[in-house]
Queue: 4 jobs
Job 1
Amino acid sequence: MDIRFDGKTALVTGAASGIGEAIALDLGRAGARVIVADLHEPAAEKVAAQIRAEGGTGIAAGGDVADPQVVEGLVDLARRNGGLHLLVNNAGIGGEGKPTGDYSLDGWHRVIDVNLNAVFYGLRFGIPAMLDAGGGAIVNMASILGSVGYAGSPAYVAAKHAVVGLTKAAAIDYGDKGIRANAVGPAFIDTPLLSHMPKEKIDWLVSRHPVGRLGTAAEVSALVLFLLSEQASFITGSYHLVDGGYTAP
Ligand code: NAI
């Protein structure tokens, strides 16, 4: 199956590392103009430069997606570069690891701001731009923790469950207007997000995946590109796991 996005403009948030980086690079290889957005602009520029080195169009942009004005600015950048056709709300953080009764209020607000509110801002500003561009496709990065819980991560689990719901709501609102929206639920993926974890914790996580390993960013990206493509034209409002069997038992 040859997935191509020639002539389309994509905005990927959190695109300087891990899953977002893999998606941005794959979109560039598939012919899309890619806005590589990240909190860390120099790292975003590296990814954008790699897209250009491979013959594609990569445009780096810095900023914190928890700020609605930043997200509005990213969408405007896409409008000035051909219009917004593809949107991947991917930026996310793990947050502190504490049980619900000990979780700091600041920690709660930051995780909700980055992992949930920023996804809403992407939709709030991105959807009008997509309508102006004649339609498009959205993928919101949830997690397996959008459908099951996890010890010591109340804010992350709550935000990811909400991302799944928000995705369904937007898909219903725009299903007959040429915009599809889906959520993706990766299990534990080998990216810098997990780099703070000790080896014993990683080994334990591996044991929770029936395939016997963590996933790769490339495996998540393959699903995201399919959902963004015309091959997925009848798929909207749904939540797609890429989890090595984590949620099967
Ligand atoms: P990562 O830490 O490798 O990359 C995340 C990127 O997002 C970083 O480049 C970071 O600078 C950027 N970012 C963080 N906060 C930001 C903000 N406020 N504004 C703009 N950019 C920001 O993480 P990874 O693993 O690639 O995660 C990407 C997404 O996938 C996240 O939403 C995460 O929750 C989700 N996910 C990751 C899993 C994993 O096991 N790695 C599993 C399930 C979901």
Note: The mean pLDDT is 98.
Job 2
Amino acid sequence: MAITAVEELNILHSTQLIIKEALGKMGYSEEMYELLKEPLRVLSVRIPIRMDNGEYRVFQGFRAQHNDAVGPTKGGVRFHPNVTEDEVKALSIWMSLKCGIVDLPYGGGKGGIICDPREMSKGELERLSRGYVRAISQIVGPTKDIPAPDVMTNAQIMAWMMDEYSRIREFDSPGFITGKPIVLGGSQGRESATAKGVTIMIDQALKAKGIPLHKARIVIQGFGNAGSYLAKFMHDSGASVIGISDVYGALYDPNGLDIDDLLSRRDAFGTVTKLFPNTISNRQLLEQDCDILVPAAIENQITMDNADRIRAKIIVEAANGPTTMEATRFLTAREVLIIPDVLASAGGVVVSYFEWVQNNQGYYWSLEQVDSKLKEVMVKAFENVYNVHISRKVDMRLAAYMTGIRKMAEAVKYRGWI
Ligand code: NAD
């Protein structure tokens, strides 16, 4: 079905189109699509915060809960100036798909606040984080909806949120939120889990394409939590990281970049390129010759505007929504193997789930245990999606949606909702 350029970039709209196609291919009814195309619940909140200069500012926030037929909803909270309600809704649907693909007992949720943490003091960020929890406290909780970090939120913000929730409920509630500091019940390996999951996907994709790891040349867009850990893991495993970027520009060297040096110079928001004179643009970076391209920044980076200039053999989506549906079809037809976001970046939610299990048990695992369980889950998820891709002759994104939505649709049926 042809869609316009504006529709191509509306992530909620394109997600709904793929869900419709996935449900249709598996023989589910139109009613099932009507239920699953939107979140069951979206709360929009206004949060008044006293700023350091004594004035009050009112921030807009959201929390979307896509579907809780499988279990409580789960998903990160994003602090970004461009957050919109539609984006949060789409991200909550993607979380449902991710949880289905890696077979967790969760549905998807997502939150966001329209703000720019780069312009805020630590005190202002703390008041905003606590204000958000007070505003959404009635619909969240360890057995209802469990938040986590996402773009420009981190372990400190999770700690403030957990503390605020525990104060409201008057008992310690580490299982309310994941991605916490280790001393507050965080899991070993959570901070780097998304990147670790991506490395497992890269391994599987290289095997499928017959490229040895030590010969692989990798370009990574974004040098934040996902991108920088990934660069480190790939560099340490012997692959050559030849390009990285942040919001201000990109660094590219066909002979490989000095990742340890870049890591030691990046700031808390994943920016480093400002320190270098010879940068190229993010757009140019995406078009460089490489084996693996990993978008690990934001949405809509590979579209019908630049798809014909992408030279990577494999695209592994660490970011949510970096490649549009049309560009996916175009590149798949050119035999580029795309490991879609809902599969590739699921490592974060898998270890978040491990963190929640450990909090509920009050018993904590070693990094080795976390890593080996993560690997087992991710390899199995890759095989499941890849098998659907081959056996049903559909692109990897559609295969991932089919794999991810099935459990939820079955749970909806058993509960008698449809
Ligand atoms: P982050 O805030 O830590 O880092 C984002 C990086 O992208 C920074 O280097 C920033 O400079 C860069 N960036 C921002 N805007 C950009 C632009 N317009 N062009 C190019 N670069 C830009 O965020 P993160 O946690 O690493 O998340 C990155 C992506 O991965 C997001 O799409 C997020 O939803 C997804 N993701 C993250 C996790 C996680 O656990 N952190 C899990 C799943 C998915």
Note: Residues 150-152, 194, 221-227, 245-247, 270-271, 282, 296-298, 318-320, 345, 348 surround nicotinamide-adenine-dinucleotide (CB under 6 Å).
Job 3
Amino acid sequence: MSLAVGVIGAGVMGAEHARILRENVSGAHLAAICDADPARAAAAGPGARFFADPHALIASDAVAAVVIASPDATHAEFTLAAIRLGKPVLCEKPIAAEAAAGLGVVEAEAALGRRLVQLGFMRRFDAAYGEMRRARQDGSIGAIRLLHNIHRNRAAPGWFTGAMALTNSFVHEIDISRWLLGSEMVAAQIFPAAGGGPLMIVMRTEKGEIVSTEVNVNAGYGYHVHAELVGSQGTIEMAAPARTLCNLAGARSFAFPPDWIPRFAQAYRTQTQAWVDAIAAGTSAGASAWDGYVTTVIAERLVAALDAGQTVEIALPPRPALYAEAA
Ligand code: ISE
């Protein structure tokens, strides 16, 4: 039986989720779509049932599972509504705009005793990150010492506030670094460059690994994500983010994509398929609500530390048994 999915939000990510459900996923279909703008919703979900009210979509009998791709501040509210109705959710990151709201989601799911929430940390489904994680697991580059991350966006949209470089962008590196290393972060320090950005963040893990990240939301030239894992015997890093090279006018070059969708197209598709398959199998996949909460706690602590430049110690509440396995 095909899973009837309702998508909340028809902006850049909502439209992409709707397209993936219509074109790239087996075992599920786009049943409903919700957006404040009916024309935008119709363009993203031709033939899907339109809802103006997200809560009506979540409650509808025509919807068995929900993708949340609305503005960050609404994620926790809609996820909680789905948990109350026992409906599985694929929620775009972050889990919430504030850590306290993220904890509310974790507590609701832990009280239910069953994982219904998958966080949209799609990088876990990216082939390059997967190879890097396997290199750590099989010990091929020796003991892991460092991880260097680069996260550059071409240009931040007008509505992107300063704190969102941490709460909306850097949460990806928090999650992927925990997942790559299999370690929890225990301390972090942030250094804004002159003028307020780019940001340089250094984190330390419980095992003493160091994670450096440049977050640059206005890099100018394109979308560019890079990572290099440094071990005691060697390193493993991402290759150029391109399938082809162009030889022209005395130079060899490749193009950077304008945003994250082309770079992570395969990861988004694999993520959605894993979500659908896990629902059918009664299991769970990808990042959990707990993983989402942890990233939001760290991002929030760093927002508070931005001006002070102090080292932030990271303290988390006990991990509920539901999330016993490591990230
Ligand atoms: C955006 O919301 C995403 O999730 C992208 O993957 C990320 O690279 C970008 O910085 C975020 O703003």
Note: The chain is about 35% helix and 25% strand.
Job 4
Amino acid sequence: MPFTIAIDGPAASGKGTIARALAQRFGFLHLDTGLLYRAVGAMGGDPVAAARALTPEDLLRPGLRSAEAGQAASRVAAIPEVRAVLVDFQRRFAVQEPGAVLDGRDIGTVICPGAQLKLYVVARDETRAARRAAELGVDPTEMLAQLRERDARDADRATAPLRAAPDAVVLDTTALTIDEAVARAVALVEDRLSAQPAP
Ligand code: CDP
């Protein structure tokens, strides 16, 4: 049975970095589901039609990592029909052998409620803003306001709000280096893998 790792959490908490590192370490596939919403937001026009027309090339569009693309993503991500269109693709991705890591907002709660490991990655608001501002070369104070606005929109929406699954392990990366955060996540995966029934 494929091993699925679901990683959720607020903006710039370290989800993506941990997800990429776990995928590399265990030879699993990785899907940054935020990129799907960023691409839909960037395509313009009717968001539901854009979600239906989404191709892998759309995920390579330049500028998808910008703060503006993040805001546009969280607006289209609040539309239930947009989310519904993207569910099947994500669920199919999640069950590929030998395993898959998906990071986003609703992976443990909606997309993969049966994932073998669910992580909910958090960090202090100011820490997240400083990290993302450094990444994008923008002002940290403005970034803090933007992240808070986006988190509030993501957490308050009616469909698939940002929330930890009841059985998620919370990982606070505020005081951790990347290596320390990854090491904790690796230990959790190893623990769950060793508890898996033999194939
Ligand atoms: O990297 P960062 O955490 O800043 O954002 P992201 O993961 O690229 O997600 C961008 C936006 O897409 C989020 O603010 C959410 O509104 C939306 N999103 C979502 O609704 N569900 C997901 N599974 C992933 C992203």
Note: Residues 11-12, 16, 33-34, 37-38, 70, 73-74, 77, 104-107, 150, 154 surround cytidine-5'-diphosphate (CB under 6 Å).
